[in-house]
Specification:
Largest sheet: 8 strands, mixed
Mean pLDDT: 92
Pfam families: Lactamase_B (PF00753)
CATH superfamily of the largest domain: Ribonuclease Z/Hydroxyacylglutathione hydrolase-like
Protein name: Metallo-beta-lactamase domain-containing protein
Strand content: 25-35%
Number of domains: 2
Helix content: 25-40%
Distance between the termini: 49 Å
CATH architecture of the largest domain: 4-Layer Sandwich
Domain Metallo-beta-lactamase: 44-215
Organism: Candidatus Kaiserbacteria bacterium RIFCSPHIGHO2_02_FULL_55_20
Shape: globular
CATH class of the largest domain: Alpha Beta
Keywords: Membrane, Transmembrane, Transmembrane helix
Oligomer: single chain
Strand order of the largest sheet: 6-5-4-3-2-1-14-15
């Protein structure tokens, strides 16, 4: 009798695992040919998970802590322990703190990082983990194209030169994710000076459906000139509730409203996910 009960228990577990696998395959089938971009709810910081139509995965920043692992478990299957590309936009702890844990948990093929240098213990820990990972390292520079397959790619817009000793925000990696006729502007913590410089370099690479508001909605970013040329349908504030910086600044919130741009907020809305079919972008 006891053996029979054990066999039934194993059978139930097998059936549950099969059901989970079927569910996940069905979910992937639903997103076949789609680009999925999730602005993760990791508190005060940035972390963006991208799944290309090809299935390739990119993680841009990892927030300040292990909370990124919790959020990744919600957008990735439980058995997936690899990420194709990780992009730490700059050395600030609210962008790379969680990447120390990501590198420990996941196999990463390529790390694309700015040449800007940090001087914190977090940055030192990240560099040690990156060395242990033995991933391919690429220094980000304007003009690089990261092919994600299936027609999706990342354009590196900034920095446009080696910037080891500039302010970390000035040297952060600004990228534009493109799929078909749609695009996402991922502007890290770039201040207005960098935004306006990007406008001066050429406006053809700015228009985007979704804008991650620079520097968590700080008043030092999201200049009127930049918003006008990006002309997004949606914006996202990636920030923690009751953060000590007052992000997003009220004047920035009002500016998005003046431009008629609906803004989502990871504090209020949790993880914010968009799906593109190459023609339109919708919030999932």
């Amino acid at each position: 009798m006891q053996k029979s009960v054990q066999i039934k228990g194993v059978a139930i577990v097998v059936l549950l695992l099969a059901a989970i696998c079927i569910w996940y395959v069905a979910m992937r089938e639903d997103h076949r040919g789609s680009l999925t971009v999730s602005f993760l709810n990791i508190g005060q910081g940035d972390s963006i998970f991208i799944q290309a139509p090809s299935g390739r995965q990119v993680l841009i920043d990892g927030g300040p802590s292990t909370s990124v692992l919790r959020e990744l478990s919600r957008v990735m299957p439980w058995y997936d322990r690899s990420i194709d590309v990780v992009i730490p936009t700059h050395p600030d702890a609210d962008h790379i703190g969680g990447l120390v844990d990501v590198l420990a948990r996941y196999k990463v093929d390529t790390v694309i990082h700015s040449s800007v240098e940090g001087d914190t213990k977090t940055f030192a820990a990240f560099n040690r983990m990156m060395a242990d990972e033995h991933a391919q390292e690429v220094v980000a520079i304007r003009g690089q194209i990261v092919d994600l397959g299936g027609g999706a790619y990342l354009q590196i817009l900034s920095p446009d030169r080696s910037v080891p000793h500039v302010d970390t925000n000035d040297g952060c990696v600004v990228a534009r994710l493109v799929y078909g006729a749609t695009a996402f502007m991922l502007s890290c913590d770039a201040p207005r000076s960098i935004e306006n410089y990007l406008v001066a370099l050429g406006t053809s690479t700015l228009k985007s459906n979704v804008l991650k508001a620079g520097h968590h909605g700080s008043k030092t970013s999201s200049s009127p000139l930049f918003l006008g040329y990006v002309a997004p349908e949606y914006a996202v504030f990636s920030r923690g509730c009751d953060n000590k910086y007052g992000h997003p600044a009220q004047e920035t919130v009002e500016r998005f409203a003046q431009f008629g741009i609906p803004a989502f907020d990871t504090c209020k809305d949790g993880t914010v996910t968009f799906v593109s079919d190459g023609q339109t972008v919708v919030r999932e």
